[in-house]
Amino acid sequence: MEIWINPACSKCRSAVNLLDEEGREYTVRRYLDDPPGEEELRAVLDRLGLEPWDITRTQEAAAKELGVTDWPRDATSRDRWIAALAGHPKLIQRPIITADDGTAVVGRSEEAVRDVLSR
């Protein structure tokens, strides 16, 4: 299991604490220091069952500079969104937990983290 975190994020810290409390083994990835590329983002989106706009932090300064809120949310624009996430990893929603069973979850709530722990 791997968890993508920003250490400054309280939701990330809560998710890590829960993993620790449950005694789970996992790898921490500080995705701002080690950002995922476009192919990795596509794979994680497939595992999440989401589209790139679903995991985009649209209130970030970079999102506003890029104007992502005005971008179409359709198949023809998908690559543009993925390129934006790869180029500006701060836009990626966090934490993302990739489970050993091939699934993934955005672990912003205790319920979401517990869901991945139950697999």
Largest beta sheet, briefly? 4 strands, mixed
Q: How many individual domains?
A: 1
Please indicate the percent range of residues in DSSP E strands (runs of 2 or more): 5-15%
The span between the termini is 11 Å
The arrangement of helices and strands along the chain is EHEHHHEEH
SSE-based structural type: alpha+beta
**Could you give the count of β-strands?**
4
CATH homologous superfamily identity:
Glutaredoxin
The CATH architecture category equals 3-Layer(aba) Sandwich
Q: Can you tell me the CATH topology?
A: Glutaredoxin
Largest sheet strand order: 2-1-3-4
What features would you describe in this structure?
A 4-stranded mixed beta sheet has the order 2-1-3-4, with helices on both faces. The protein has one domain: Glutaredoxin, CATH 3.40.30.10. It is globular. With 119 residues, the protein is α+β, with helices and mostly antiparallel strands. The model has no long low-confidence stretch (mean pLDDT 96). It is built from 5 helices and 4 strands, in the order E-H-E-H-H-H-E-E-H. Keywords: Oxidoreductase. Pfam families: ArsC. Belongs to the ArsC family.
Features:
single chain; 119 residues; alpha+beta; Glutaredoxin; four-stranded mixed beta sheet; globular
Could you write a compact summary of the structure shown?
With 119 residues, this protein is of the alpha+beta class. The chain is 39% helix and 12% strand. Helix 1 (10-21) runs parallel beside helix 5.
Any chance you could write out the topology, listing elements then pairs?
Elements: E1 2-5, H1 10-21, E2 27-30, H2 38-48, H3 61-66, H4 78-87, E3 96-98, E4 104-106, H5 110-117
Parallel strand pairs: 1-2
Antiparallel strand pairs: 1-3, 3-4
Organism: Streptomyces hazeniae
Keywords: Oxidoreductase
Family: Belongs to the ArsC family.
